[in-house]
């Protein structure tokens, strides 16, 4: 299996300017886990991670959340509460986990078979997992689900004001320019449309945070090595969580993209291990 570029370094409180001062000034840096890499490299590196883990994606999420991600996603869909005929764009949704919950919710809650979801992902390996999942369901070969490969920062094939809802679950932290992805989300939503993001987040309680750190950095990469023979990809995924903006900072980014948020704009789940962010295009 191809390994991710990785060096095991301690967490940093920002870019190390002393180590990068000799690099070409035109080479803008971003983070890939705890590493600093040129911006133009990150997309390929992230793509390789998800190519590596696609076939074990559900196992990966079980490992990273202790299985609780399934409850979070159920709550995420109940919070979205889609109505009959909703058109959803599910970004970074390749394996179809959120899309399936969406269509099942509409069918079971409203008896609706007119809701539609576009499953959008940058990684074809992930999309293949989603297609295989849907092939075993009544939604296969219907107009209710479609798959599209592309970059969240440039939804060029999605028209303006065309979607009722936009969801992204455990994906936005892997985007190179989060602000661009948020602006694209705003563009494609109809007036009144809703943006919702489920993402690993920051635990504030120091005792729980310490336990979570031990689990994250000691246990999860080891599980990755055992179940997928791929410690490095799982190490990156843990590090990417720590580099993602904390709840208040990301809520501000959602507002800055033009969304109207209610209250603080987010709901913590399981002591802040994950959070649901929400905004409306009004």
Gist of the model:
With 282 residues, the protein is of the alpha/beta class. The chain contains ten helices and nine strands.
Keyword list:
9 strands; seven-stranded mixed beta sheet; two-stranded antiparallel sheet; 282 residues; alpha/beta
Structural class: alpha/beta
Order of helices and strands: HEEHHHEHEHEEHEHHHEE
Share of β-strand residues: 15-25%
Shape label: globular
Spatially, the strands of the biggest sheet line up as 5-4-3-6-7-9-8
Please work out how many helical segments DSSP would assign.
10
Q: Which whole number gives the mean pLDDT?
A: 87
Rounded radius of gyration (Å): 18 Å
Unreliable runs, pLDDT <50, ≥5 residues? 1-25
Explain this structure.
There is one protein chain. By secondary structure, the chain is of the alpha/beta class. It is 43% helix and 19% strand. It has 10 helices and 9 strands. The protein has helices at 17-20, 39-53, 57-65, 69-80, 97-110, 124-134, 178-188, 206-228, 231-243, 247-256, and strands at 29-32, 35-38, 87-91, 116-121, 145-149, 163-169, 189-200, 266-269, 274-280. The strands form 2 sheets. The chain has a 7-stranded mixed β-sheet with strand order 5-4-3-6-7-9-8, sandwiched between helices. A two-stranded antiparallel ribbon has the order 1-2. β1 and β2 form a beta hairpin. α2 crosses α9, α3 (57-65) packs antiparallel against α8 (206-228) and α4 packs across α5 (97-110). The longest helix is centred in the last third of the chain and has 23 residues, at 206-228. The protein is globular. Residues 1-25 have low confidence and may be disordered.
